[in-house]
Amino acid sequence: MMTPPSKPWILGLTGGIGSGKSAAAEHFAALGIHVVDADHAARWVVELGRPALASIAEHFGAQVLQADGQLNRGALRHLIFTDPEQRRWLEALLHPLIREEIANNLAQAKSPYAILVSPLLIESGQYTTTQRVLVIDAPQALQMQRTLVRDNTTEQQVQAILKAQASREDRLRHADDVLVNDKDLKALQTEVERLHHFYLTLRGGQP
């Protein structure tokens, strides 16, 4: 009798802004690994026709909708940044839905392990749903430089985002593996491949 394949274990992948976590995730995906992005899940739960969008519109009014009925993220962001009470209301609505979206998506994985990519893996407590944590780390000056180039943003804005994300020490404290991404893309991909081969030898994310 054939034994059914064991369920994929979950690797949490995180890193600060401009650390290269998206590039790392893309390479894992290219190697055939099922990747779920928490940011995408957060966008899906508020798409047109989803119950969450109706609740948001009911609570905040038409000002948070665009003319076509889609969510006006800028307007919503402005409302919740100026009012912590409203931000908590929104988080209470969305966090369980995002968790469910992520879980459903991870459950579809057919690869030996699956990856949950989340910039807030540590802060949101999402790491508790994973069996292992990989942190993509980069020197802060390099994070800053990459983000300024990529997002066409100001240094102050990047500083603000760095402050809001878990401190580097906090992230590293939760890490089972750390990939220092301070060279070029080729070097990052080589490291991802090395980790991938190591992960294939693990059962349930542990050696």
Automatic annotation (TrEMBL):
- What keyword terms does UniProt attach to this protein? ATP-binding, Coenzyme A biosynthesis, Cytoplasm, Kinase, Nucleotide-binding, Transferase
The record's PROSITE patterns line, in alphabetical order, gives:
DPCK
> At which positions is ATP bound?
18-23
Where does it localize? Cytoplasm
What pathway is it annotated to?
Cofactor biosynthesis; coenzyme A biosynthesis; CoA from (R)-pantothenate: step 5/5
Tagged with keyword Thylakoid: no
A molecular function (GO) held by this record is:
dephospho-CoA kinase activity
Q: What is its main location?
A: cytoplasm
For whether the record's keyword set contains Membrane, the answer is no
Q: What's the short name of a Pfam family annotated to this entry? A: CoaE
Per the UniProt record, which EC number(s) apply here? 2.7.1.24
Q: Which domain of life is it from?
A: Bacteria
Q: SUPFAM superfamilies from the xrefs?
A: P-loop containing nucleoside triphosphate hydrolases
Which reactions is this enzyme annotated as catalysing? 3'-dephospho-CoA + ATP = ADP + CoA + H(+)
Residue ranges annotated as transmembrane are none
**Function as written in the Swiss-Prot or TrEMBL entry:** Catalyzes the phosphorylation of the 3'-hydroxyl group of dephosphocoenzyme A to form coenzyme A.
Question: What family does the Swiss-Prot or TrEMBL record give for this protein?
Answer: Belongs to the CoaE family.
UniProt xrefs under HAMAP family: Dephospho_CoA_kinase (MF_00376)
This protein's name: Dephospho-CoA kinase
The species is Pseudomonas bubulae
Taxonomic lineage: Bacteria, Pseudomonadati, Pseudomonadota, Gammaproteobacteria, Pseudomonadales
